[in-house]
Amino acid sequence: MVNSYIRTIEFEYEKVSRHWLKIHTIISVGLAFASFLLEVILYFVLKQMNLMEASAPRYAQKYLLIPTGLNLLILLIIFLFRKLYPKRLTLQSYVISIGLVAICFVLFTIHSIFPSLYFLFAIPLMFSCLYGNYLLTSVTAICVFIARIVGDVVIVWDSAKSAVLDESYNSVNFAISLLILAGFCISCLTLIYFEQEKTTLR
Asked: Which residues of 149-170 are buried (b: 16+ CB within 10 A; e: fewer)?
């Protein structure tokens, strides 16, 4: 009787996990598609405002073909893991969570001239905490911080962007953004803790 009850709980838990993995994957695809659509719209908006400095072929290569190709590669890896390891739900959750960080990294790096885009990295953090796995959220957070630093300090995709560490204002803004992400990460881990406490009380 007890074993049957445990198996029922495990089955329901697996069912919920599979459902969330499917939603998580759809969100990743949606973000990749939305970023492509945004780039197309942005081209016509900037051109209409006479702010477009790059030629159409150059813009297509730098802001459409390369980022879209990278996002498609990330999505291919996600779908490949889901296909090859259909029963390893934990592995899938790691791949999808890190894959979403990678998609956000591509979008942020391409347009890091807009500082507000660092908020994108809150998306994979928030979604990872819904699995209720401390390690998964911690690994996702580490990937987020690496992506944030590399995308803002190491890679300079837009020549119009000023170096982060060369100006005091940019350095302070960069440091504050990291503190905000750290606070958001702590909030996600705290949420996992209290959700597990609620589950234990039930």
From this structure: eebbeeebbeeeeeebeeeeeb
Place of tokens 């994979």: 124
Residues of 71-87 as b/e, b for ≥16 C-beta within 10 angstroms?
beebbeebbebbeeeee
pLDDT value, residue 163: 64
Question: What is the overall mean pLDDT for the chain?
Answer: 83
pLDDT of residue 202: 55
> Radius of gyration (Cα) for the chain, nearest Å?
20
Nearest to 32 by CA among 95, 65, 83, 75: 75
Does the pLDDT at position 172 exceed 70? yes
40 to 28, 51, 103: CA distances (angstroms): 19, 15, 17
Q: State pLDDT tens for residues 27-83.
A: 999 999 988 888 888 888 877 887 667 777 888 888 888 999 999 999 999 999 999
Residues 6+ apart with CB under 8 A from 53: 160
CA distances for 197 relative to 54, 84, 177, 191, 193, angstroms: 54, 34, 30, 10, 6
Question: Measured between alpha carbons, how far is 157 from 105 in angstroms, rounded to an integer?
Answer: 12
- How far is residue 107's CA from residue 112's CA, in Å, rounded to a whole number? 8
